[in-house]
Amino acid sequence: MIDFTIGNLQSSVLVHRHPANPILAPRDIPYNPAMVFNAGVVKYQGKYVMVFRNDYGDEVNQTILPHTTTNLGLAFSDDGVKWEVNPFPCWSWEDEEVIRVYDPRLTVIEGKCYMCFAVDTKHGLRGGIAATDDFSSFEILSLSVPDNRNMVLFPERIGGKYVRLERPFPVYSRHGIDRFDMWMSDSPDLRYWGNSKLVLAVEQVPFANDKIGPGAPPIKTDKGWLTSFHAVDIDSSRGKNGWEETWKKRYTAGIMLLDLVDPSRIVGMSSSPLLAPEAAYEIDGGFRNHVIFPGGMILEDSGEVKIYYGAADTVECLATADVDDLIRLCLEGK
Ligand code: BMA
Predict the structure, then answer these.
(1) How much distance in Å is there from the Cα of 6 to the middle of ligand 1?
(2) What is the sign, positive or negative, of the torsion defined by CA atoms of 103, 307, 139, 258?
(3) Do residues 191 and 162 make contact, with C-beta atoms less than 8 angstroms apart?
(4) Does residue 193's CB lie within 6 angstroms of at least one atom of ligand 1?
């Protein structure tokens, strides 16, 4: 039960929405799209590569909900802003047990590309990790037990181990309500995961009263691993706010710094959201308005950080910020 509401939230003045937003929308997709969002983005072999979530249905409009059928699409870019979409989806996993794969996150480690993803199965929600060379075939390396998702990989081994952030769904000890936190596990080979630790609890985030989860894969800075997360607050007075009958949640993006050597240790965190829903494409006309869901973060040589996020579960957007500003935000806690 939610015992307090969060109220009005604003984005940090240090982050800038790109004027080309939304940078990818259903109109850009050459096959059966309805909502194009929650993408993973990396720089790989000289190009920006995006794998995005495409939800589609037989009949899509604002009164008939999409049939939550999902595939993953692929797009390439030379500048990270203008995207060329491949003519076909790159992955939908056909298996008796699998309902759909969604919310991809990409990380390049030692020159190889890995994709974390969520899988709805008939027996629970699993977090997966796959390796790919060409974004058309994916070798599944590991699948968690239910319920876990929002996995992201760090872009290098730490202390010799691969490390991931993740978000399990602890129902029993959290009294069956959404009080979900961010965790971390490590692995010698990306297949076997253990040594799990709590990283950030939802009650440590002043702009969440519901749940949090990892956002984009962390980027390395000299002050720590710069890491985004999504934070959810519920206000039961919210009513219809999108295509569904009611949508009481709001998703914002937070930012924090994790220790370079022991990333389960938080070095600093901004006490306000980095991005809160404000732009028209975030608050109006979407499937679920007031949702910002970061899934990709790229540090450019210039110090610019590109932050890719799904908006309103309907389109994909880009915001930018200076890396030193983001570090300061975390260290000053504001
Ligand atoms: C979460 C996930 C995300 C989605 C968000 C808002 O639980 O399903 O894929 O963007 O809800 O609907």
Answers:
(1) 19
(2) negative
(3) no
(4) no
Query: 21-332 domain in CATH 2.115.10.20?
Result: yes
CA 259 / ligand 1 centre spacing (Å): 28
Cβ 38 under 6 angstroms from ligand 1: yes
pLDDT of residue 90: 96
Tell which one of 51, 150, 289, 293 to mutate to probe ligand 1, the residue whose CB is within 8 A of the most ligand atoms: 293
Task: Determine if ligand 1 sits within 6 Å of the CB of residue 225.
Answer: no
Closest ligand 1 atom to 293 CA:
10
pLDDT in tens, 94-125: 899 999 999 999 999 999 999 999 999 999 99
Going from the Cα of 103 to the center of ligand 1, the distance in angstroms, rounded, reads 8
Give which of 19, 15, 46, 22 is closest to 36, Cα–Cα: 22
Radius of gyration for the chain, computed over Cα atoms and rounded to the nearest angstrom: 18
Q: Is the dihedral of CA 70, 190, 231, 1 positive or negative?
A: positive
Its pTM surpasses 0.90: yes
Tell me the per-residue pLDDT of 25-80, one tens digit each, with 9 for 90 and over: 999 999 888 899 999 999 999 999 999 999 987 545 544 455 568 999 999 999 99
| d(CA 165, ligand 1 centre) in Å | 17
| Confidence at residue 56, expressed as pLDDT on a 0 to 100 scale | 85
Closest CA to 291 of 334, 237, 238, 233: 233
Q: Quick one: pLDDT at residue 172?
A: 85
C-beta 316 within 6 A of ligand 1: no
Give the nearest ligand 1 atom to 37 CA. Answer: 10
Segments in the chain below pLDDT 70: 1-2, 58-68, 334
Counting atoms of ligand 1 from 1, which one is nearest the CA of 287?
12
CA 257-316-291 angle, to 5 degrees, is 70
- pLDDT score, position 174: 83
* Alpha-carbon gap, residue 101 to 96, rounded angstroms: 13
Nearest to 86 by CA among 33, 138, 21: 33
Q: Any idea where the domains of the chain sit in the sequence?
A: 21-332
